């Protein structure tokens, strides 16, 4: 299976997972010139900005390592663009998350990791 296809399937799986936790999905692949947030969802008074990694354990390192300083800064900037476009979101607490989909289709949800 191609990398893009695997990533797309992982994002769909992650969306279903978030919905099972009573999140409302607002955006998938919210893109700006400087970056992207894979899934933006809302639950209660929290706006969840989630990076999805469909990851094989044999890669030799944890997907958290992909959320390096540059990636985190880009996600924050994209979040700020979202607030400019939809000021009604200003009152919501942001949460930057990682959703790790394993090769066995297990979901590991790391909430508010930065």
From TrEMBL:
Domain of life: Bacteria
Molecular function per GO: nucleic acid binding
InterPro entries tied to this protein: Restrct_endonuc-II-like (IPR011335), tRNA_endonuc-like_dom_sf (IPR011856), UPF0102_YraN-like (IPR003509)
Family indicated by similarity: Belongs to the UPF0102 family.
Protein name in the entry: Uncharacterized protein
Organism: Leptospira biflexa serovar Patoc (strain Patoc 1 / ATCC 23582 / Paris)
